Each structure stands twice: as C-alpha cells, then as structure tokens.
C-alpha cells in the first residue's frame, strides 16, 4: 500500500511539471510571434516611385500668396523611362481570288511546279494523286453501295408529308352512296335558315378569282396579296347553349367515306353559354332563364393554306364545306341556323 501511494504521488508531480512546461512554451511562442510582427511593421518600404513619363519633363506654375507664382517641376527620374510600344501586328494571310491569281506569273509558275512534282511522285507514295483518289473512294457512299438521304432534301420529308389514307370518325346513314357529285350537296340559300344539326352536313361553295373590288376594306394593295377564306353570316346560336363545330374543305367529288387526302381541316368554332367561365362547367346542366335569347355571329375561316395542301391552285374549282357539329348529348335534337355561306378575301 505504501509503494502504490508513493507511485501515484510521483506520477502526479510529473504531470504537473509537463503541464507547466507546455504553458511556458505556448507563451514563448506568442511573444516571439508578436516581436516578429512588430519588426516587420517597423521596416521602411523601399520602392521606386511610379513615374509619370509624360509629366516629368514639364514644369507648371503654382500660385502662392501675394499673387506670386513658382514653377513646380517634377524631379528627374533616376533611370530612363521605358516608353510603351504597341505590339507588332502581323499581316493576315488572305487567299487572293482566282481572277487575280491567274495574272500573277510567280504564283502560276509555283502552282505548275507543284503540280508537276505531284505527278512525278511514285504510285505508292501517299501524297500522289492516285492515293488521294483511293482515299476519296473509301469515303464515297456510292462506292460502298450505301445510299443516304441528301441533307438538302431532309426538310421535304415533313413539308411534303401526307398522312396515310384513313376513314373519318363519323359516317352518314347506311343509304349514303360511295360515289357522289357536286349536285348531291345542297347550295346555301342566301337570306334563308340554313340548318346545322347534330350530324355532319356539307354545302357546295362556288369560287371565283379576286378582283380590285375585293381590296376595299383590307390593308393590302395588290390582288395577289389577298388571302382566301369563307364566312358564315348571321349564325344564330341560343345564348345558353354550348356549340362547337369543326369545318373542313373538300373536293366537290368527296363524300363522308372519302380518304383524308380529299379533305383538309380549316378550323373550329366554339361558343360557351353565358355565365360559363371554363369548360368544366359546360358538362353540367345550366339553368336557362330564357331559351328565346339568341346571338347572331359572323364566323370566318381562312382556307388558302388548306386549298394549297389539297392541290387546288386555280379559282375555277368549286369546293364543298363540311361542318361537323359537336353538341352535348341533351342538345342532340337542337339546331342552329345561318343565313349565308360565301367566299371572301382578306
């Protein structure tokens, strides 16, 4: 027991001495750092002043008291200043045009000499014309038997694209014939109640070329700048009825079973009932305050682009206008009327 207690006392004295020594070394390092920093700050900064090369040889008068002046001259520099010089701009190499090089005798002689040396090279020399031709053939798709689409014609793939023939989503009754003529479709009677119901309906439309009279009321100055369109005049729509119909232009020989390449879409007209702020409310039943309230609208569609897609470029070809209504189920028995369907130019 006595030995263990003496050992513990010895280890405690040693630990105290080590801790005291560490503290002294720490304070000594702080003092040395402080002394070194003070010595560095007390040193004088020695450097040559920045010379004003454009001013040191000039003297300027300085105003003193009692209307006296004294010339103030900058001190002469201890060394000769080095004046700034712009870097030398090398001449840009520009390839001269062929009509100038043809008259340059020196250039023509060098070209002929180089051509002669190229022809004198051995056949197995990689710089010879023969080896160059062989390399060119390895990069030729025709030589490899592979043919790719020319990049200059890449855009024509989608510009001239025509969809595959398909059937429309609507059909006429079982008595509809597969072939028809323009006489099978009714003409729009002006100032009459031409009816649009819940099934698709077609109207025949006569076309004519534009005249100077069509320029009146437009912003164009030449007849060729006019764009062709159709207008449905005085479309009478119940104010509280949701109405939507799609409009197509067709060849006169087209019918409801014809392929899509004989018909082209021109636009959609949509009428929301009064008080409806979004399409979500259209599906619900809307209370009708007065079913005798109607709106009369003129509905216009541009047909020039659609006619060009169909390949109709002259004004002597008459067309038919197909109207495909999209009514709600509880409005299937209702109809809308319009007074006239005619061609117009904008």
Protein described:
GO terms for molecular function: catechol oxidase activity. Residues 172-182 have a biased composition (Polar residues). 24% of the residues lie in helices and 21% in strands. It is α+β, with helices and mostly antiparallel strands. Among the domains are: 99-135, no CATH class; 182-345, Jelly Rolls. The protein has a four-stranded antiparallel β-sheet with strand order 4-9-6-7. The longest helix is centred in the first third of the chain and has 41 residues, at 2-42. The protein is extended, with a radius of gyration of 48 Å. Mean pLDDT is 75; it is low at 165-182 and 281-289.
Number of distinct beta strands:
11
The main sheet orders its strands as 4-9-6-7
Query: Roughly what percent helix?
Result: 10-25%
Number of separate helices: 7
Structural class: alpha+beta
Radius of gyration: 48 Å
**Under CATH, the topology of one domain is which?**
Jelly Rolls
Distance between the termini: 120 Å
Detail the poorly predicted runs.
Answer: 165-182, 281-289
- Biggest beta sheet attributes: 4 strands, antiparallel
Shape: extended
- The average pLDDT score comes to 75
Beta-strand content bin: 15-25%
CATH class of one domain: Mainly Beta
Q: Could you say what the CATH architecture of one domain is?
A: Sandwich
Order of helices and strands: HEEHHHHHEEEEEEHEEE
InterPro entries: Di-copper_centre_dom_sf (IPR008922), Polyphenol_oxidase_C (IPR022740), Tyrosinase/Hemocyanin (IPR050316)
GO molecular function: catechol oxidase activity
Protein name: Polyphenol oxidase C-terminal domain-containing protein
């Amino acid at each position: 027991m006595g030995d263990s207690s003496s050992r513990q006392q010895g280890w405690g004295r040693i630990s105290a001495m080590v801790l005291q020594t560490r503290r002294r070394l720490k304070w000594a390092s702080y003092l040395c750092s402080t002394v070194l920093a003070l010595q560095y700050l007390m040193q004088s900064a020695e450097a040559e002043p920045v010379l004003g090369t454009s001013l040191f040889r000039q003297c300027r008068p300085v105003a003193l008291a009692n209307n006296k002046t004294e010339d103030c001259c900058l001190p002469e520099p201890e060394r000769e200043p080095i004046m700034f010089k712009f870097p030398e701009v090398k001449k840009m190499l520009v390839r001269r045009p062929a009509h100038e090089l043809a008259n340059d005798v020196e250039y023509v002689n060098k070209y002929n000499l180089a051509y002669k040396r190229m022809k004198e090279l051995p056949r197995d020399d990689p710089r010879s014309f023969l080896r160059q031709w062989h390399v060119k053939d390895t990069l030729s798709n025709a030589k490899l038997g592979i043919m790719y689409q020319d990049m200059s014609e890449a855009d024509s793939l989608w510009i001239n694209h025509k969809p595959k023939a398909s059937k429309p989503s609507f059909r006429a009754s079982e008595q509809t014939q597969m072939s028809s003529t323009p006489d099978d479709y009714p003409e729009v009677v002006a100032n009459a109640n031409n009816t649009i119901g819940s099934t698709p309906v077609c109207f025949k439309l006569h076309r004519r070329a534009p005249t100077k009279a069509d320029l009146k009321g437009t912003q164009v100055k030449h007849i060729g700048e006019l764009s062709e369109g159709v207008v449905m005049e005085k479309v009478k729509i119940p104010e509280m009825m949701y109405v939507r119909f799609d409009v197509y232009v067709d060849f006169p020989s087209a019918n409801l079973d014809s392929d899509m390449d004989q018909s082209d879409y021109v636009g959609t007209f949509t009428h929301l009932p009064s008080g409806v702020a979004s399409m979500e409310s259209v599906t619900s039943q809307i209370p009708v305050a007065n079913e005798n309230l109607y709106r009369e609208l003129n509905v216009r569609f541009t047909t020039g682009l659609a006619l060009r897609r169909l390949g109709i470029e002259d004004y002597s070809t008459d067309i038919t206008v197909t109207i495909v209504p999209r009514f709600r189920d509880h409005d299937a028995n209702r109809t809308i009327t319009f007074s006239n369907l005619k061609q117009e130019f904008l």
